[in-house]
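Quick one: structure tokens for this chain, please?
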Amino acid sequence: MATVLSIAVPELRQRLAAFPPPTIIDVRRPAAFDADSVVIPGALRRHPEAVAECGRELDAWRTVVVY
């Protein structure tokens, strides 16, 4: 599977409306998370240091978007 390093907002919106939607993971550090009231609906909140461990929780067949 190809690795894409970025995704534009319109494309992410389109993918979220499709089936299956991608898994969204929010890895912002606490200060950045607390300073921003915007969260992508349905995003999983994970600490950046623990992102490798959260891979076991993910569906292998679903695209993952990390922000």
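Residues 9 and 18 are 14 Å apart (CA to CA).
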